[in-house]
Amino acid sequence: GINAEYGKQWYQRRVRGGSRGRGRGRGNRTGRGGGDSKEWYPCTKLGRLVKDGMIKKIEEIYLFSLPIKEAEIIDFFLGSKLKDEVLKIMPVQKQTRAGQRTRFKAFVAIGDYDGHIGLGVKCSKEVATAIRGAIILAKLSVIPVRRGYWGNKIGMPHTVPCKVTGKCGSVLVRLVPAPRGTGLVSAPVPKKLLNMAGCEDCYTCATGQTATLGNFAKATFAAIAATYAYLTPDMWSPTVFTNSPYQEYTDYLAKPFVKQPKKEVKY
Fold it and tell me: Angle 211-139-249 (CA atoms, 0-180°, nearest 5)?
């Protein structure tokens, strides 16, 4: 009767380990970067416009300085080109009454080696969770990289357009344009970031406590981001202002967003 059925369920849970019911299952986990197999349902207006093809290029988002709150937006535009690299994983500790509580801090750089780069930092109890979170944060922080020439404008841009500086903590990083064929004259950390950003030639100068890898990477990232902060003479032409995507597609965004039901496959 009822007792026999209950006993059978108890045996399956306790002895055979089936459906423990405490939410500790490790099944259906994907690799680094999260579940790509799930369909993306955008949560923001920008996400809706991107998924429905209203915004064709990621540069349209940067042109109007629209904040990107969903990592899937970056995947949509740069997904296949993006490569990520773990710069460092370091343990950090907090003193408690019971002793120390150790967590792991991950620094991850992400880029397409062609003018886009991001840097993410995440702290978590497990290394895998920290890396996964850092990759998502790196995608959210992806910025465009402006490249230029050292001398005559021949061929494709190959170096930084001018001397730029970035600072984090005591670390100050200066990027200086270099002639074609020089390569990246740099320490290992900025070399990785500049390579991911698509710079082929660059001189660098660093001061401060560069052994602090986190600050060294952040200072380099700040310097790379500063390439678009300079208004050089070739950008003096009058700007023709257009409506932002939010204004242009106001009527479309006013409609309620409805999830499309999944099609059932019958075998």
Answer: 145
